[in-house]
Amino acid sequence: MAYGDENLTLANFDDYTEDDVFLEVTGITEEDFRFLRDGGEYENPESGETEYFDESLEEDIFDYIPPQKTNQIFTPKWVVTKMVDQLEENNPGCFDDPNKTFADLYMKSGLYITEIVKRLYCSEAIKSAYPDDKERIRHILQKQVYGMAPTRIIYLIATNYILGFDEDLKEETHNFVEADAAGAAKEGQLEELVEQCFWENAML
Asked: What span, in angstroms and rounded, lies between the C-alpha atoms of 107 and 72?
């Protein structure tokens, strides 16, 4: 099963995002984004000469989004993969247990949760426990992964990325909430916020 919205690419990222929030989300204008993506002529500020910018990196949208004024950082995919690899190295078998839970309390892109869902979904042990594909993915989304996003915009980006692969699962947002975990942590109230957002909701 493909996981994540495969239609979202560098070629259409500026179209995916509403014009009035693009600058707020990325920290750069759409014009600057297209220049980084497509290349083009520019004047070298040191030499004054016209040069051509042609970036030939492998495509990763989140490499193109700089750190935000709010200190939000959209982590590139290769970093996320390394993080999840290290999580598994330090917790062998963690993705083979259908009772294990995982949380990202400061979601930005949704890549971290998506990578964890992939590992769980592809685990032979979890496949054995939930052989039906749809039942397995629903169990993972409803019982194993949780996330908080600091703003409405970031919440929509993350949940659209995590759930965008399947129209039937777009309503599986119960475990993902808009909440300021960083602010709560600074005030010493993170535990209370997590309990309010997830434990209390689970009891409803």
From this structure: 9
pLDDT tens digits, 6-30 = 555 556 666 656 666 666 666 667 7
Half-sphere exposure of 174 (CA within 13 A, CB side): 16
Q: CA separation (Å) from 32 to 27, 107, 108?
A: 10, 25, 21
Residue with tokens 């083009």: 40
In sequence order, the 6+-apart residues with CB closer than 8 A to the CB of 2 are 165
The Cα 96–Cα 79 span in angstroms is 22
Report yes or no on whether pTM surpasses 0.70.
no
* Backbone phi and psi for residue 142, each to the nearest 5 degrees, phi listed first: -90, -25
Question: Residue 111 corresponds to which tokens in the numbers above?
Answer: 């890549």
